[in-house]
Amino acid sequence: MNKIDRYIGNSVLWAFLIVAVVLLGLDFALTFIEQIKRVNDAYTIQSLLQVILYRLPGKLAEYIPIASLIGTLMGLGTLAATSELTVMRAAGMPIWRIGFAACQPIFLVSLLGMGISEFVAPMAEQKANLIEKVQDQESGAFSLTGGVWLKADNNFVYIDAADDKGKLYGIQIFSPDEQKLKHITKAVSAQHIDGTLWQLNGVKKTHFASDHVETESMKNADWNVSIKPEHLFLASQEPDTLSLSQLATYQQYLHQQNLDASQYELEFWITILRPIASLALVLVALSSVFGPLRSSTMGGRIFTGVIIGLAFQNALNLFGRMSVAVDFPPVIGVSIPIIICLFAGIMLVRRRG
After folding, report:
1. 189 near 201, Cβ under 8 Å?
2. Where are the membrane-spanning stretches (predicted)?
């Protein structure tokens, strides 16, 4: 029986790998076509390729549930097309045992995806974002979009990008005086020195007097701010670019500051429940192979897998975003489509068996 388990597992695993490579290849091509218009003297074709490659690990972790579904449909569908599943069933092998053999490689791949989400994808994604932000600055696109706004020591601070070594890029500090703007300080970058002390580099400061405006430029300037460097770094990142440990750390900080942490909670639960989502979709695929797709063509199975995967992903996004909008725990919003899929798969498998 162990040989049969390995045979089924290998069929599902190879089909999963083929689907994952195809999905990543399509994502790479479509992203390249979409982003090629951004290429200029500052943001070269090499930079674009580097950014896309850095983002592939995160895309792989994100595609694991859908690739698990389509891979299971393809792997078991091939065995069904050659009547090998029929022979296994005739020999007394129950459907649950076939499903267990199919779930084993998917579970291992899901654990690998968790490791990628924790240790590889965040660093790669953050490097990609940093390349884009730095290139935008070099091309003169110093904008107030895509970064983060903070309130620190009665000042409003905009940070375009940051790295995990305590360096900030594209800083703008707006200092109000009651209802009036006192001055604006712009800096190309900032480096943490010690405690609350930062050094601003490439500084341009604009003073707003009652009857005139003054501008001065400095190579360096000191900046005292009470926010910790690690919090500035995490605040400058999108929630989906952070690891589970970073999401948990920043959630705790936001709760301590009585700030909204729902976006970070949502991304935390989407990542941590991804292996369960993959197994739930495998059960749905298993019930389909022994049911309506038993005599279907490979193209039909792939099409069905894509439709089910898109429906599941849209439901996950819908209930997840809805939980943020109506203020109930994101873990509930993320769990609803997974639980529905899991119970539907279990009931359908029991009916087939």
Report:
1. yes
2. 12-33, 63-83, 95-116, 268-290, 302-319, 331-349
